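Whiteboard transcription, Tuesday session. T.W. wrote the structure tokens on the left side:
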């Protein structure tokens, strides 16, 4: 018996002793989820678990309950477990489950249908509402005790994690990925550091949490640096002209932000974030407002989650994405709450974001999570940053700027060993390789820019978003074309495996052709050796046979030569495709049995929209987005992930 199986039995016993539910108690019957009965192929419906995971709060007698919804592949065991978090702070991770990376999307009737790009086909994935007050997560204290600092948020998450593994002990043997978007850029590094400290105090490796990576999508990681990116990014993308009558006001706001940062650069009285810096994007939205008389009311303001879209003012993205109203309709459908093991009478009605969580989380003790990244990277945990290139509020420039300021592995920013790749996705229906973005990697840190995507990449391109997970899990192929590196992912993992098999077959066929050519040469030599005897004979049959042999030899050699030329040209154009590894192979977890998938809905276009920082061009075309931390409105304390100011 494996040690973790023994530990699983102990955890199961402890769970019973503490009154915790077991995995079977959390099982969700698919027939109770509206819409799933219409799916003809039952094997496409994921295995599901959901409900409240209780754990003790810091106050005596306080019990906190975090809501989770877990999705697993119905037929394949996965050795990887992903925990997903949305941001806000205070925005429900059901955004992720039902609008982005989860197994379902919800239609206008409030019914679920399958998301073809769901991440659960690559790994088990658990969506967690946290901290308390977010989504369906509650506390026994009255009024609810909101967390006021990321240190407390982290302490409570570790309490949840302990109880989770007691209810799901077999998951303790799995490799863990922490993933999320927007304000989760703060959560994830804090959670990762706490897991590392938890493991450091344990000698038995079988009870450690096997954290492998954190995946941050359009994350709010470094408030200062990212705030200073707004004005130059807006100018670069043509969102505001220098001739704008208020441009000097924006420059002044930019300078005020830089000055307040400079005054506290020595760490004295340094704050988590500064109002002067938050003011920049508020003014940017105000000064780019369309005031023309013919402007539609819902198209006067930039959408901060996708600068190619517009919205009403001061919402500026709060009414996006368009499918958002379907989610409360789904949770209000009779029977849904019971199916998810929730008491509709004791939990609040679902709404996307909670104002109380946002206003309470002031982080008076914590520093921004960017300061934790160097030690996380140096510990061997991989950090993958993925960004939709049409996001304004957590834009590419801001992310790359703070990466450039990071010191890890004995060097600041990207080193001269940085690996760069263009990323293409293979559409399984058309078999066309479509440009998806670009990838940069150096010393455990990977940055991925997804073209024509928003703050919520998976909402725009669900299949493509799953490619982010594929890139991390090494479910991609590497092509080297004229010295340039290209990554290739696919909708279906079998497509890549077949592609690799075709490459091997082509190579084997060429070797066979070479062998036959060699044998033909031996035959040719033999025939030439006997040629004098044959030619001296007046026998017509021998003369005819000689002609046939010579014709066969000439044809075989011609075919061999033609095949060799074609193969040479093939290799010249496409050098050997092989499984891509973005880091030193000795440092990666075992991904031997993995492949690739996704991207039918990838929008294509001509390459424009120059990214000056990277010297790259992205395809044109737009989409939508969502979710983040404090950005404009009439109240600077409100979040743009909130659905109610």
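and on the right, the sequence the group agreed on:
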């Amino acid at each position: 018996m494996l040690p973790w199986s023994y530990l699983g039995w102990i955890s199961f016993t402890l769970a019973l002793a503490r009154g915790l539910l077991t995995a079977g108690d959390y099982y969700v019957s698919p027939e109770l989820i509206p819409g799933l009965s219409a799916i003809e192929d039952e094997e496409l419906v994921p295995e599901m678990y959901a409900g409240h995971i209780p754990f003790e709060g810091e106050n005596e007698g306080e019990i906190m309950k975090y809501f989770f919804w877990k999705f697993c592949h119905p037929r394949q065991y996965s050795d990887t477990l992903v925990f997903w978090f949305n941001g806000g702070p205070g925005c429900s991770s059901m955004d992720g489950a039902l609008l982005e990376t989860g197994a379902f999307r919800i239609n206008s009737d409030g019914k679920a249908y399958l998301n073809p790009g769901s991440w659960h086909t690559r790994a088990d994935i658990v969506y967690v509402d946290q901290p308390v007050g977010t989504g369906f997560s509650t506390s026994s204290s009255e009024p609810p005790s909101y967390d006021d600092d990321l240190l407390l948020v982290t302490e409570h998450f570790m309490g949840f994690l302990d109880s989770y593994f007691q209810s799901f002990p077999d998951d303790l043997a799995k490799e863990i990925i922490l993933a999320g978007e927007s304000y989760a850029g703060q959560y994830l590094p804090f959670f990762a550091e706490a897991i590392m400290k938890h493991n450091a105090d344990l000698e038995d490796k079988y009870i450690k949490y096997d954290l492998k990576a954190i995946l941050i999508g359009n994350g709010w990681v470094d408030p200062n640096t990212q705030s200073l990116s707004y004005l130059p990014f807006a100018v670069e993308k043509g969102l505001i002209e220098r001739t704008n009558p208020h441009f000097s006001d924006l420059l002044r706001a930019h300078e005020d932000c830089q000055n307040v940062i400079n005054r506290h650069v020595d760490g004295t009285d340094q704050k988590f974030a500064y109002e002067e810096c938050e003011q920049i994007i508020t003014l940017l939205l105000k000064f780019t407002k369309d005031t023309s008389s013919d402007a539609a009311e819902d198209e006067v303001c930039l959408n901060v989650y996708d600068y190619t879209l517009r919205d009403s003012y001061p919402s500026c993205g709060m009414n996006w994405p368009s499918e958002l109203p379907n989610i409360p309709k789904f949770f209000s459908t009779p029977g849904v709450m019971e199916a998810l093991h929730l008491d509709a009478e004791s939990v609040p009605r679902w709404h996307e974001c909670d104002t109380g969580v946002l206003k309470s989380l002031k982080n008076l003790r914590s520093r921004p999570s960017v300061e934790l990244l160097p030690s996380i990277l140096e510990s061997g945990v991989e950090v993958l940053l993925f960004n939709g290139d049409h996001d304004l509020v957590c834009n590419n420039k801001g992310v790359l700027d703070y990466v450039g300021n990071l010191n890890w592995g004995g060097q600041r920013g990207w080193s001269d060993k940085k690996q760069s790749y263009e990323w293409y996705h293979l559409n399984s229906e058309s078999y066309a390789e479509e440009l998806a973005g670009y990838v940069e990697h150096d010393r455990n840190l990977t940055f991925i820019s997804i073209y024509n995507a928003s703050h919520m990449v998976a909402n725009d391109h669900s299949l493509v978003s799953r490619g982010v997970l594929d890139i991390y899990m090494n479910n991609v192929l590497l092509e080297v074309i004229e010295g340039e590196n290209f990554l290739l992912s696919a909708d279906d993992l079998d497509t890549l495996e077949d592609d690799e098999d075709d490459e091997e077959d082509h190579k084997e066929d060429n070797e066979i052709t070479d062998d036959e050519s060699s044998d033909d040469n031996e035959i040719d030599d033999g025939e030439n050796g006997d040629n004098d005897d044959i030619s001296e004979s007046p026998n017509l049959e021998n003369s005819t046979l000689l002609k046939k042999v010579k014709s066969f030899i000439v044809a075989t050699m011609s075919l061999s030569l033609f095949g060799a030329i074609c193969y040479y040209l093939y290799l010249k154009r496409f050098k050997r495709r092989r499984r891509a590894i973005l880091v030193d192979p000795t440092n990666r977890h075992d991904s031997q049995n993995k492949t690739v998938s996704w991207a039918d809905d990838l929008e294509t276009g001509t390459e424009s929209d120059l990214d000056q920082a990277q010297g790259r061009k992205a395809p044109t075309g737009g989409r939508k987005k969502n979710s983040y931390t404090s950005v404009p409105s009439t109240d600077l304390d409100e979040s743009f992930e909130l659905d109610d100011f």
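Someone added at the bottom: The mean pLDDT is 83.
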